[in-house]
Amino acid sequence: MFRSGKGRFVAVPLALLFLFAFAPIAHATPPPNQLDLTITGSVGSSGQQDYTQSGGEVVYASILGQVVNSSTAVFTENLSASVDGLVTSGTAYFSLSGEFLNGTSFAIGGAIGIVDAVPAEAFPLGCWDGITLPLPPACTSQVPAFFVGLGALSGTVPPSQPPLWMDLESAYLNPGPLPGPIVWASTDGSVVIVFSYVAATIDWHNIQTNGSLVGTLGATPVSGSFSMTTNAHEDLFAGTEAESGTMTFYGMNPSYLDASGAFTGSSTIPTSNAIDCSSITGIAGTCTETGLASSGSFTLDPGNALIQGSYDIDWTVPAFSFSGTSAALVSQGGVTGVPEFGAGALAPVAMGVALLLLLRRDGLRARARN
Predict the structure, then answer these.
(1) Pick from 164, 195, 173: nearest CA to 119
(2) Can you tell me whether residue 352 is helix, strand or coil?
(3) Taking the model in full, what pTM does it have?
(4) 11-22 vs 343-369: helix axis angle to the nearest 10?
(5) Nearest to 98 by CA among 110, 88, 108
(6) Cis peptide before 32 (omega within 30 of 0)
(7) How much is the pLDDT for 23?
(8) Cα dihedral sign for 145, 148, 152, 154?
């Protein structure tokens, strides 16, 4: 049955042998799987923040008890401040001129050296009772509600003013996309200015968030923890934010989902579910607590699995904790498609060569007999 009369029987086994010997060797690993997760977490550290701000139009003002006719007011202000952990520093400036309601002209303004802050919140969450100052040692970072500074003010009313301690509300307390007015006032009440701002930003550095993950990988239950280190640029006037940073899954079950990588995302400040917090400032309409809606994508690669996916999370009001969902594709191992020439891979080649020689020998004998 192997005779061809011309030795053509060699060609078919040769092709088969080479297909067998050099076929790609597939790893016995599962195909990509759908990873669906529920995410819950909170801010552990607010990191370092850089603030800029400029205004705006006067809504209300009083100087030494005299109310300013806001329709005559000419006002400018700017602020630049930095918060690193619990240390706050920076500078601010304002200039206000116009007429009081009695028609008297006035002018007042000057520089303010920022040296401290009154926190809107301190971290980690639970380290502060929300009232007592200074912050307890358990607190390691903060987000300011007010910047505190010493103002060297001068003007026509009064002609000169001794340095005044000033509380400067951060635009963080009344953000866009429908930004409301904020308050700058001296602690003795002699200077009160309520004004709208036209620009305000925060650059966030090394925000630390962490939390838990639970869900499924295909039909397999999944659980574990995650952490994120975030850098972000927030436009308080527009109510938008762009984020990027690193993400880590750890303590995962199954363990091959332990992974680290990068993420990018964006957030918007919703106008719904906002809470009025004007009791903080004592002036209606000057404080609004809001949430945040965030979405983005990530790629995590621990070396034995590739996790690529997206997330959608909603933050509480105020925006210090969150929950949401994530959908990702997990690829563990895979088919390389590249021949492997180790000792095991060469064994089929050796067997093929031996069989080829045997067939050639039998063919020559058959032809000799004919």
Answers:
(1) 173
(2) helix
(3) 0.81
(4) 180
(5) 108
(6) no
(7) 42
(8) positive
Percent helix, strand, coil in the chain, to 5, is 15, 55, 30
**pLDDT at res. 13:** 45
Encoded tokens for 125: 């969450």
- Confirm if 321 and 212 have CB atoms less than 8 A apart: no
pLDDT mean values, one per 10 residues, the chain (370 residues): 36 38 41 87 98 95 96 97 98 97 96 98 97 96 98 82 92 96 96 97 98 96 98 98 98 94 98 93 96 97 86 97 97 44 39 41 45
Give the whole-angstrom CA distance, residue 245 versus residue 321.
18
Bridge partners, residue 304, by sequence: none
Token digits of residue 243: 């984020």
Amino acid, single-letter form, for residue 54: S
Q: Where are the domains of the chain?
A: 8-26+336-369, 33-45+208-331, 48-203
Which position has the token pair 């020559």?
364
Closest by CA position to 347, among listed 5, 6, 20: 20
Would you state the structure tokens that stand for residue 65, as one six-digit string? 């008890």
- Calculate the alpha carbon distances from 259 to 128, 215, 231, 297, 336 in Å: 33, 16, 20, 15, 21
DSSP β-bridge partners for residue 191: 63
Residue 56 to residue 54: CA distance in whole angstroms: 7
- In 3D space, the residue among 272, 309, 276 whose CA is nearest the CA of residue 292 turns out to be 272
Q: Which two tokens stand for residue 95?
A: 């200039």
Instruction: Go through the chain and tell me how many residues it has.
Output: 370
